[in-house]
Write a structure and sequence with these properties.
The protein has 557 residues and is of the alpha+beta class. It is 51% helix and 16% strand. The chain has 16 helices and 13 strands. The strands form 3 sheets. Strands 2-1-6-5-4-3 form a 6-stranded antiparallel beta sheet. A 5-stranded mixed beta sheet has the order 8-10-11-13-12. Strands 7-9 form a two-stranded antiparallel ribbon. A hairpin with a 6-residue loop joins strand 4 and strand 5. Helix 3 packs antiparallel against helix 4 and helix 5 runs parallel beside helix 7.
């Protein structure tokens, strides 16, 4: 039997007390009151200690006090200690029946054992009768005291006290029942809270394990910029950027962070976590963790998130390592640069010798001269392309716009591509009225037309038609290069002007190319202040539209 089964306190204060001391604590109030009466008896009620009932009451009270301390109550069941309050009624009855002159009636002391019984584990059908008949029997010796006749006042007191004790017991039982129900409800709620807490803890562990398995750094911040979560990958990334003498854990300001391609440390306010803490939204922000060279290049992105009420809940920052990708791009750029540099010398020699031949072309037939001029024009464009490739970073080009006839450039582009088109069983046609004036660099726009026509022929492996037509309006001149070739998806068309991009369909057909022509075409057109767009459907060909500013000189008007 546990200690908590002996006595049930309504508030649970005594549950941690050993069993004997629980019983002693419940017996202590009556003991103290009776001790005060016994100590005061020689001075105020000398007859209390002189008659047999008074001495018997004090002796019985002393025996009950010793029993509280000496008896091992935990061995006899939860109701065994209730023998003490039942015998307390006998103590009260003996004291009241002693007939001590001047001693106040102590019948109300029955409330102490009644409280004990009412707060016990006894059911109401047992505790309520004990609370009534105990005080009633304790009052009989006082009511039937020898040598005195019962007066109406005594009878009323003897009857009223048991009913008062019954009311006290009933109130305590109701209160105890209510507290019990509340405790059960609280226990159920606590169990529910514990279950929810266990579920939340389990989900948190699962989330932590998931975040620790991904090869992406994740940092969650609250609205004040404090970290809520950092996964293991991010911790390792930050450890790789920590200086040798840094404190542990490493502070944000101590990390060695630089912009990609630069050696100057990033200011604290431009670091990804600080930008996210300030409420910024950003993506593809390249930073280098650690000393350069040898650092780890990551692409950082930050985005705020909302809480359950729709307000700001903080920000999430993700770090994706792109060191290998950046190194691959650098290696590709280096190969392209070396290759382009090696092409410049022979191209310069070819152009120079073609100039010499054209300078002494009086004895040559006209068809041969035209073919040499085509070769010279394309060699010059190839040299311009090589020069563009030698420029660092993106394909930035220089243009010199002037009043140019686009119809003549279209004819020259179709003439240059005629041999290639014939070999591919492609028919070339043009619907461009001459002259068609525009503000354009003839060399660069010729390069654009050569690229577009060459692509249209190349991506028509089963033959077809390539047509160039023009439209004007709103101060723009538009050239449309249309083919009936293999076409491409909308997703591939959106990336067609990306440097080195080649669609999966092109790679599947093993069509040669480097993915540079359209990116250079776009750069040239944009340098003119124009635009180039692509409209394509798989199996139905493509249409590229080049929009250039129309010539606004009086002569053109």
């Amino acid at each position: 039997m546990s200690e908590q089964q002996l006595v049930r306190a309504p508030d649970g204060y005594f549950r941690a007390v050993p069993p004997r001391f629980q019983v002693l604590l419940y017996q202590l109030p009556l003991t103290l009151v009776m001790a005060a009466v016994a100590i005061s008896a020689p001075a105020f009620w000398p007859g209390l200690l002189g008659n047999a009932p008074g001495r018997a009451a004090l002796a019985l009270l002393a025996g009950l006090l010793l029993a509280c301390v000496l008896v091992p109550w935990q061995r006899f069941g939860p109701t065994a200690p209730l023998a003490i309050p039942v015998l307390d009624f006998a103590v009260i009855g003996l004291v009241r029946g002693g007939g001590v002159e001047g001693l106040p009636d102590l019948g109300l002391l029955a409330v102490l054992p009644v409280v004990w019984i009412s707060c016990s584990r006894l059911p109401a059908p047992v505790s309520l009768p004990l609370s009534f008949f105990g005080p009633l029997l304790a009052g009989l010796p006082w009511l039937l005291e020898p040598g005195s006749s019962p007066t109406p006042g005594r009878i009323a007191t003897a009857v009223l006290v048991p009913f008062v004790m019954l009311g006290v017991s009933l109130a305590l039982w109701l209160l105890n029942s209510r507290l019990g129900r509340e405790q059960q409800g609280n226990a159920a709620k606590e169990a529910q809270v514990q279950s929810l807490l266990a579920d939340g803890t389990g989900r948190e562990r699962l989330l932590s394990r998931i975040l620790d398995t991904v090869d992406v750094g994740i940092v969650a911040l609250d609205t004040d910029g404090r970290r809520l979560l950092t996964n293991s990958w991010q911790s390792q990334l930050e450890a790789s950027a920590a200086p040798c003498a840094a404190s542990s854990p490493v502070q944000e300001a101590e990390l060695i962070l630089t912009s990609h391609g630069q050696a100057t440390p990033l200011p604290l306010g431009r670091r990804p976590i600080q930008r996210a803490a300030a409420g910024e939204t950003f993506a593809d922000y390249l930073v280098c963790f650690g000393d350069t060279p040898g650092g780890r290049v990551v692409s950082a992105g930050g985005r705020p998130f909302t809480d359950a009420d729709g307000g700001s809940g903080g920000s999430v920052v993700q770090f994706n390592e792109v060191t290998g990708f950046v190194e691959s791009l650098a290696a590709k750029d280096e190969v392209v640069s070396n290759f382009s540099h090696e092409l410049r010398t022979p191209l310069t020699s070819i152009i120079g010798n073609l100039d010499l031949v054209l300078g002494d072309a009086d004895g040559l037939p006209d068809p041969a001269v035209r073919r040499i001029e085509i070769a010279q024009r394309n060699a010059e464009r190839l040299l311009a392309l090589v020069s563009d490739l030698l420029m660092p970073g993106c394909p930035a080009v220089s243009v010199n716009p002037c009043r140019s006839d686009l119809a003549a450039l279209v004819d020259a582009a179709l003439s240059s591509a005629q041999a290639h088109a014939s070999s591919m069983r492609v028919v070339l046609s043009a619907d461009v009225s001459a002259p068609l004036w525009a503000e354009a660099d003839p060399l660069r726009i010729g390069q654009v037309l050569d690229n577009l026509v060459s692509n249209a022929i190349k991506y028509s492996p089963d033959g077809g038609i390539v047509r160039i037509y023009a439209s004007t309006g709103d101060g723009w001149v538009r050239l449309h290069v249309e083919d009936t070739g293999m076409g491409m998806t909308a997703a591939d068309a959106s990336q067609a002007f990306t440097r080195f991009f080649r669609s999966p369909a092109v790679r599947a057909h093993s069509i040669p190319g480097a993915g540079l022509g359209l990116s250079i075409t776009k750069a040239i057109v944009e340098e003119h202040g124009g635009t180039v767009t692509c409209n394509s459907r798989p199996g139905h060909g493509s249409t590229f539209t080049v929009a250039l500013p129309a010539d606004r000189t009086p002569a053109a008007a």
